[in-house]
Structure formats: structure tokens, C-alpha cells
Design a protein that fits this description.
It contains 9 helices and 7 strands, in the order βαβαβααβαβαβαααβ. By secondary structure, it is α/β, with parallel strands linked by helices. It has a single domain, classed as NAD(P)-binding Rossmann-like Domain (Rossmann fold, 3-Layer(aba) Sandwich), CATH 3.40.50. The protein has a 7-stranded parallel β-sheet, with helices on both faces.
Length: 253
């Protein structure tokens, strides 16, 4: 599905990440890959991508550092003259901005959520745009930002921001032939989810309410959706949020 396409992958820090599963499938479908990492996690990213079917260059990109985005286009050009797709899997929140701390969180607590988990999508798209002159696809991963997820706090607010930004990108990038879409997935076991306070309160909820079976262990449904959106099989789909959650989002009482 992705023969000959060059795809940028962000957010690989563990084999249990959606970014890793998507990169693995993209490689199997013929894509060439470029990766990002940052800080101390750069070494982890380097180690983990060696386990993929193919490797590729790793560029430093800390979503909290504007200068990393400002220089990203030129650093990308050192490795490729074009990109066909981008996988955005960057998110971060301070513990003081999530869950029970929603009402007491200050701007310095909140800013990380909005900047990394929301606005970084626009910053990355802007940096990649000069290398996407032939069009392409930007795909991000979210947790449905419409309802309230009490344990998420401002991480949930950031997802709503993220979804709005993707729609605006669909408008601004359409004239360049670039699509912007998101996958709203159900909960999956990984190190990011494991540190959420009270995450155990969600045990069994998805499985009981989703019309289709849902497994917290199975990354394949989400990675398949990411790769499908990166491919040429959705040529006129943009600004969409495709739910890969077993149908949980359609349920009322």
C-alpha cells in the first residue's frame, strides 16, 4: 500500500506504542521511514527502531522547543528531498494538569498539554510542508476529544484542541494536496497509559460497552487505520476523525 512512499514517524519510545506498530506495518507495506526522538529518549528510540524491518535516520525534535521546528525542514532535507506522509504521535501532560487537579491547574501546568499534545500538530505540518510539494497525508492519533474523560483533565482538553487543529490544517493544506486526518482509538496498554492516575477505573468499561470486541493489548486495528490513511486509498478524505474503538463512541446509556 505504501510502496515508494517516504513517511516521517514521531513518538516511538516503546514497542508498545502506536507509533511503533504503525511504523512496523508501514515498512511491511513498502514505506521508507524517517524518525524523530529527543533528549534522553533519543537513545531509546535508536534502540527500538533497530527491531523494525527497516531502519532510517533519526532527527531530534522536542515538541517543547520552537527552534527544533524552525530548523526541522533543513535537517529533513539532509536525508530526503520529499515526504509523502507524516505520523504524528506526540503527547505529554504534567501530572498537575490531569485528573483531580483540573480545577487547581495553573497555566504553567496546562501549557505542556496544549503545546505538545495539541499545537505541535500544526508546528510539525508547517515544518514538513516544503517537502510535501506533491501532496501527501498527515495522520495523528487521539482519544475522542468530544466527551469528558475525568482522569484525563487537560490532556483531554488538549485532544479537543488537537482535533480542531487537524480540521484547520485540512483547510489550509488542501490546496497543496495534503490531507489531515486523525484516528480516535480506544484505550491501549502502554507506558503512557500506565502512569495515568486511576487508570484502573477504566478496566472492563470498554469491553462491556463497545459493540465490537476490544483488546487493550492489540495495536493492529489502529496501525492498520493509520497505514490506510497514509495510502492512496482515501484520496478525498480530509479533516476526518475516524474512530477505531470497537464502536464505543456510538453508545449512549
Amino acid at each position: 500500500m505504501l510502496d515508494g512512499k517516504k513517511i516521517l514517524v514521531t513518538g516511538i519510545y516503546t514497542e508498545r506504542s502506536i507509533a511503533y506498530a504503525s511504523a512496523e506495518l508501514a515498512a511491511a507495506e513498502g514505506a521508507e521511514l524517517i524518525f524523530t526522538g529527543f533528549g534522553r529518549k533519543m537513545k531509546v528510540t535508536e534502540t527500538i527502531i533497530r527491531r523494525l524491518p527497516i531502519s532510517g535516520p533519526i532527527l531530534e525534535l522536542d515538541a517543547r522547543e520552537q527552534d527544533h521546528f524552525d530548523t526541522f525542514t533543513d535537517r529533513l532535507r539532509e536525508h530526503t528531498d520529499h515526504l509523502d506522509g507524516v505520523i504524528h504521535c506526540m503527547s505529554s501532560s504534567k501530572p498537575s494538569a490531569v485528573g483531580k487537579y483540573f480545577m487547581t491547574a495553573k497555566w504553567d501546568d496546562i501549557e505542556t498539554s496544549l503545546r505538545v499534545s495539541g499545537v505541535s500538530l500544526q508546528a510539525l505540518a508547517t515544518a514538513c510542508l516544503p517537502l510535501m510539494s506533491k501532496g501527501g497525508s498527515i495522520v495523528g492519533v487521539t482519544l475522542d476529544g468530544t466527551p469528558v474523560w475525568p482522569i484525563y483533565g487537560y490532556a483531554g482538553v488538549a485532544k479537543a484542541t488537537y482535533e480542531s487543529i487537524s480540521r484547520y490544517l485540512a483547510y489550509h493544506l488542501g490546496k497543496h494536496g495534503i490531507r489531515s486526518n486523525l484516528i480516535a482509538c480506544g484505550p491501549l496498554h502502554n507506558p503512557t497509559v500506565a502512569v495515568i492516575e486511576d487508570i484502573e477505573s477504566a478496566d472492563g468499561v470498554w469491553e462491556a460497552r463497545a459493540p465490537l470486541p476490544w483488546s487493550w493489548q492489540d495495536l493492529q486495528p489502529v496501525s492498520k487505520a493509520v497505514v490506510a490513511l497514509l495510502s492512496d486509498w482515501f484520496p478525498s478524505t480530509t479533516g476526518e476523525i475516524i474512530h477505531v474503538d470497537g464502536g464505543y463512541h456510538v453508545m449512549g446509556m
